[in-house]
């Protein structure tokens, strides 16, 4: 820009007036935007949706996103300068800004909290960030001198903090430097609190770039005429990497093991070639679904599936949202694939949401076989770098299709054509902690509506709320009640454990019926799945002589006994204790375990069936990054006879050799004190049952152990009577004015002093009820676990009817009342958690 011109243009104004200001979203829990000044040289380049680095507080720097640009200096503080502009092009789309704003209002949280959850750490460098060398990095030629020097330093350390980097880098601007290294994929940025990403490496080889051109290659081969072994190794490489035709293929190289797999001679020849630098070796991160890139057979929908797919498309003509109600094993995934292909072909983007746990497994492998590397995968167990790549891949157009968990709703789509929410009834779509406490299905619907995309909700056991919308005609409804390949739904039977206990035919926790069935299945070399929705060995210990039971110090719950780890553990706060040898109260040695979890079942099984191969799958056995997948693939490969697990085993798994499913403790699932308990029980039991009998040539069996076989919900499970369940449930919801007839907002008041907590809760309730009316404000009530981490909890439930109420105004009112209480000196340290649409 011409300096003089600028000066004349603004010669009458003070500098203050011509300054451009940026309203920024900072990823912190503060309920407002922050205004910063934009330096002159940044004015042209800065855009709404770009990231910037700004100072915050005394010595922190933080990444923020531009929400607005304007000329109004802030009223009550001196705006500080934006330090750096990180993006030439907006990294956050207009739709996303709209979404963040909507979510903060709807879910009653700070927009910064939304941003914080939305952006992967790799996209928000802060002074708390840590940086590590990316072992996958293979392009040193991209780096400038300074970056190379820094990278050498980084290699020597497991990771470096922001400050340490600053010291090593000297005078330069650290955020910009880090950003450049991130862009070049040379480093990985992570939050200190998070687990560090340890990738699995594969050794690869490629030809030295000197031989990439055809004539060079030819010369090499001629030179090797006299060394036939070495020539053969090069030829083998060329068979796998046909770079004669396309020299660029060399860059990706070839798995080293492929070159030297069969004989020793080729190994030593390869060794020589590497020594002579004909081949170069390098390492890359093993893709998580390494063996899945074989292109897939053409999928062909069955006539029933085709009808369903056509009907979905037809209904999309009139409705934005369609519910796809298909029984377990009906092949919903195949129908999704068909639709995704259609939408992608039309040039629009597709988002496919899956519950957390299902994403590491079979479904993704199936999708990947069809869509290959055109599909992005967004998963919380993936490293941040991978998440960043998916984000950028969407912006750049590399990924038109992403399959992901709930946080994938935050990705920068701007041309969505279709959103699929698989297993839409899954509660894991709702984020519990921290804020925003959003429901990914509902957020996805909002996003889809803005972008005029269609939404397909799929489930074998739809949530009552969703089914109601379909019944009302607000959503379309498509049904598929036929299993793929003529497989039948499993035969389900109830086993009366009370009676068996009386008759003394139980073997520990196993009824004789289940025991016989398991023995039978082992004999026939078929696999079984056992479901007990409780991990650990037993939910508590008890002294037979006095009243003592194992209790958590910090929470109002018992400590679960974990035999393998030889510990008592609190499942709420993580507190751990060693197992007492004698009763801590009376010294008695008669301390026994009460109740049973997956660990105990596993133990009893091993005693009853010493030769059976038994595997347990619950939170405790799947903590390591690939443990879950490993268990699944071993089971799939037939290396395990009986799989014992918690609800992890219910989700979307498809094993064709499983012919028996056993369900323990059904009563506990049914009698959970919550208005959705029956619905949940039906869903959970039906989903686990659905793992059995996926083959046409054999009938699957499900045995449900219960103390009360006459419970109506169990009968509905047996009859596969979803509609019956729905009719019952919707009646009750109507009678008691629960969702879908109302909206719920749960307010949880917390304080370490029970009296203060109660006082705050009473006051909040009273103030809310005064305006909203007693019938709309319930509580305060102590939740099931009334003390967690030494905080005493009280729940207040606000119930708002669906119409005739200005929900937005009510939310503002609630927020005001809460702020009022939180700023009351007498109620210091009280915290109030707001959960909109609580589950
Ligand atoms: P759902 O998700 O409805 O429980 P899946 O999509 O897992 O069912 O399908 C069950 C099994 O049937 C899977 O192994 C799937 O590969 C197979 N299957 C379903 N439809 C087809 C089809 N049209 N062609 C080939 N295999 C299919
Ligand atoms: Zn005792
Ligand atoms: Zn605890």
Automatic annotation (TrEMBL):
Enumerate the PANTHER family for this protein.
PRIMOSOMAL PROTEIN N
State the taxonomy lineage: Bacteria, Pseudomonadati, Bacteroidota, Cytophagia, Cytophagales
- The Helicase ATP-binding domain extends over 313-480
Assembly: Component of the replication restart primosome.
- Cofactors named for this entry: Zn(2+)
Residue numbers binding Zn(2+) 1: 543, 546, 583, 586
Which Pfam families does the UniProt entry name for this protein?
DEAD, Helicase_C, PriA_3primeBD, PriA_C, Zn_ribbon_PriA
Which key words tag this protein in UniProt?
A: ATP-binding, DNA replication, DNA-binding, Helicase, Hydrolase, Isomerase, Metal-binding, Nucleotide-binding, Primosome, Zinc
The residue ranges crossing the membrane are none
Give residues annotated as binding Zn(2+) 2: 552, 555, 570, 573
Q: Which GO terms describe its biological process?
A: DNA recombination; DNA replication initiation; DNA replication, synthesis of primer; double-strand break repair
Write down what this protein is called. Answer: Replication restart protein PriA
User: What's noted on cofactor binding?
Assistant: Binds 2 zinc ions per subunit.
Molecular function GO terms recorded:
3'-5' DNA helicase activity; ATP binding; ATP hydrolysis activity; DNA binding; zinc ion binding
Catalytic activity reported: Couples ATP hydrolysis with the unwinding of duplex DNA by translocating in the 3'-5' direction; ATP + H2O = ADP + phosphate + H(+)
